[in-house]
Amino acid sequence: MNTLPNTPTRVIFITAALLALSACGGGGGSEDTVVIPPPVDNECSNTNVNSLCQNPVPSTAKFENFEPATPSVPVPAIVTNNGFVGTRIFVKITGSDSPDPLTGAGQQVLFLGEVSPSDNFSIPVHVPLAETSLFYEVFSDSSSDDIVFGEFLL
Amino acid sequence: MNIFKTLAISTGLTLVAMTIALPAQAQTYMSTKLKDVVTSGTGTINLFSAANGSKQPNPTAATVEWLRQNNGSGLVFAVDVNEAANGTEKASSQGITVKSAKVVAVISGVTYEFTEFSTRTQASVAEGTSTARSMKYTLIGDSGSSRITSNTSSDIYGSDFDATLRVEVPQSLSGASSVRLLVTLMVTNVALGDPEAFYDYTNGFEDVAIVTASDAAYLDGIQAGQAEAPLVIQTSAIELLPSSTIYLPAVDKYYMVTYEDQFPNPGDYDFNDLTVGYRVYLELNNANKVVGIGGVGYLVARGGGFDHDWFLRINLPGSTSGSGVLNLYAPGSAVPASGYPRTINLTGPLNLSVFEHTATLWVDPGRNFVNTERDQAIIDGHRFTFHVTLNSPMNVSQMPAAPYDPYLYVYNTKYEIHLDGNPAVHPLSRNTADGLSGYRDASNYPYAMIMPEDWLTPIEYIDLGEAYPEFVEFIKSNGSTKQDWYMRPNLNAIKNNTPDKWKW
Q1: Measured distance CA(B439)–CA(A101) in Å, rounded
Q2: Quick one: how far is CA A95 from the chain centroid?
Q3: Any chain A CB within 8 A of the CB of B408?
Q4: Which long-range CB contacts under 8 A does B234-242 form with residues at least 24 apart?
Q5: HEC per residue, B449-466
Q6: How do residues B228-280 score in pLDDT, each as one tens digit?
Q7: 3-class DSSP state for residue B386?
């Protein structure tokens, strides 16, 4: 059964529906049909003072929420100074969130793996701007070696 | 006929018949799911008792001895790793640590213990409350898979067994009256986070099967769950697989890329026309060179009516080559969608067409959008994974910077939408022909942004600035203040589609 009202009300209804769809991202269409969205009135109708349309920004505005960082871990010094006996050396680099003591969840690992014991270790990571420091652990394959913890300030 | 000749022919025929019969006899011994399980971290598994529903009869001493010989003087067990998918463990990757495993056999009234065991993977983990880690054997798997072995009569066929545990048994078990496998899993110090949190065990039971060499090789070959597991160190020295991984942005955190798809016209700034969560990992060899690239992601919201393809492009150097696979999974499915996995033949930049025709791929019946309307129930989105092995190790410094180039091709407009600074690359797009080289509107807002995982999509038609009152201040300060603006949304303006809902 057709549940739409009769013409011309139906035409107005359909037009309104298409406009509503278009405003939030278009109303669909086939691959072969190019549908250029109708020009949108550039006047901002949103009166919220925090809305983007009320707040044009300069062309130089940045929108990044992450920043690159390259933490470096002094692996040889740590291995030597702590008298490691293990032959395989591992590094873990994490964000500042501590793991849940019961489940271990919540800690954000940025790097985990085996590294050369004879070279400082550094890698590129990508961290939220709000992060102020990163942490590292150096450990080995030997239960005689305790984990060595450290911190990088960003 | 000479009676001796008759006898010889008869004997010969018998021998031929026996020779023909032997392989048939051998094939009657197949992998068998056992009745006992590992539960609460321990298991005493009777090898002579098949599980209810097993396709095989109860194994006998002859069966076990045949399997021992078949596996080169050892017994091999398949384990279905069945952990609670919490923390860094998830349905697609779970792990446990084996503290000890031994086979105990009673032969002619004498008890023999065989304690030398191994698995295919190891990790350096700390036990109990210790803060000292050491190498331990691990078992890694995933959930919900259906193993397809060559022999449909094997209990491995159609099962979700994951990894293998091998116990060396140099002595014949043909006369055994009892053979048991005793397994103890390790309590790891989960307070340290990973790798302990991943390789812990919960109270869930793990199924066990005794397997043939061919089924063991099959399970070892698929390496279930390993691509997403932390610190996977292959036990075999022959397999020089990577043991180090860079996680971007983090092991269990995702980039949220979100779009306004009206480009080049202004949108409504709700930044939810398509939202995808994705992360990438780089596998390093022991020389700290990149040998593999992988990723995982989900469709999170679709608040636009246009039809898109979503791509993930990593602008690798032109000399890069490699091969791999792209998988797509329908919501909640552990089985790849029809047409997947797709082969990736990498030459130069990696350009993955991941979510194709989003308007028809992901639909909430009776709704125009998915996960963006105020009164709309949240539904799972599709999931993708990819992994590429590089033909030649590459310096980390040669890798382009994260978050790479996640972009949208909009069928309706034939425009593509990238993050700032990325060129148009889609062969069908009109960006270049129309002289559009950037992705900012008249108010200098972008059409695509990367958000941290904690960011939640605004409800349909609600301006991002209205949903997040500190966002504009953050932008106007050039990112120097309110850097965690996304942590303080207007709760009435965002869809509470938190990561625990869309990561399945």
Answers
A1: 44
A2: 13
A3: no
A4: B234/B120, B234/B121, B234/B122, B235/B118, B235/B119, B235/B120, B235/B121, B235/B122, B235/B137, B236/B120, B240/B285, B242/A113, B242/B283, B242/B284, B242/B285, B242/B291, B242/B292
A5: EEECCCCCCECCCCCHHH
A6: 888 888 887 544 555 799 999 998 899 999 999 999 998 999 999 999 999 99
A7: strand
Tell me the C-alpha distance between B135 and B501, whole Å: 35
Q: Is the Cβ pair A108, B251 closer than 8 Å?
A: yes
Show the tokens assigned to B100: 């000890």
Instruction: Find, in chain B, the residue whose alpha carbon is nearest to that of A134.
Output: B250
Of A141, A80, A13, A123, nearest in space to B289 by CA: A123
Task: Give me the residues paired with residue B367 across strands.
Answer: none
Instruction: Please report, in angstroms and rounded to a whole number, the separation of the first and last CA atoms in chain B.
Output: 77
Question: How far does the CA of residue A28 sit from the closest CA of chain B (Å)?
Answer: 4
Of the candidates B139, B187, B138, which has an alpha carbon nearest to the alpha carbon of residue B162? B139
- Which residue of chain B has the CA closest to A149? B131
Q: pLDDT band for position B14 (50/70/90)?
A: very low
CB contact under 8 A, A103 and B124: no
C-alpha B290/C-alpha B307 separation (Å) is 35
Q: Phi and psi (nearest 5°) for A53?
A: -70, -15
Distance CA B386, CA B329 (A): 12
Segment B186-210 shows an average pLDDT of 91
Which residues of chain A neighbour B487 with C-beta distances below 8 Å?
A: 130
Q: Which CATH architecture has domain A70-153?
A: Sandwich (2.60)
Chain B CB contacts of A123 under 8 Å are: 246, 288, 396
Q: Helix (H, G, I), strand (E, B), or coil: what is residue B414? A: coil
Give the integer Cα–Cα distance in Å for B48 and B178: 7
Cβ neighbours, 10 Å, residue B20: 10
pLDDT tens digits, B45-93: 999 999 999 999 999 999 999 999 999 999 999 999 988 765 577 778 8
Q: Do B403 and A126 touch (CB under 8 A)?
A: yes
Give how far A2 is from chain B: nearest CA, Å.
16
Terminal C-alpha separation, chain A: 64
Rounded Cα–Cα distance for residues A113 and A120 (Å): 14
> Which residues from B are below 8 Å from A48, CB to CB?
463, 465-466
Distance from CA of A21 to the nearest CA of B (A): 6
The whole-angstrom distance between B377's CA and the closest CA on chain A is: 19
This prediction's pTM? 0.83
* CB within 8 Å: A64 and B479: yes
Q: Which two tokens mark B237? A: 């020295």
ipTM at complex level: 0.85
* Token pair recorded at residue B272: 């939810």
Q: Is B453 on the interface with A (CB under 8 A)?
A: no
State the Cα–Cα distance between residues B306 and B65, nearest whole angstrom: 63
User: Is any Cβ of chain A less than 8 angstroms from the Cβ of B203?
Assistant: no
Report how many Cβ contacts below 8 Å link chain A to chain B. 286
The answer to whether residue B452 neighbours chain A at the CB level (below 8 Å) is yes
Contacts of A43 (CB under 8 A, 6+ apart): none
Of the candidates B288, B444, B460, which has its C-beta nearest A61's C-beta?
A: B444
Closest CA to B227 of B293, B137, B309: B293
Backbone phi and psi for residue B316, each to the nearest 5 degrees, phi listed first:
-70, 155
Alpha carbon distance B245, B286 (integer Å): 11
Which of B458, B461, B442 is CA-nearest to residue B490? Answer: B458
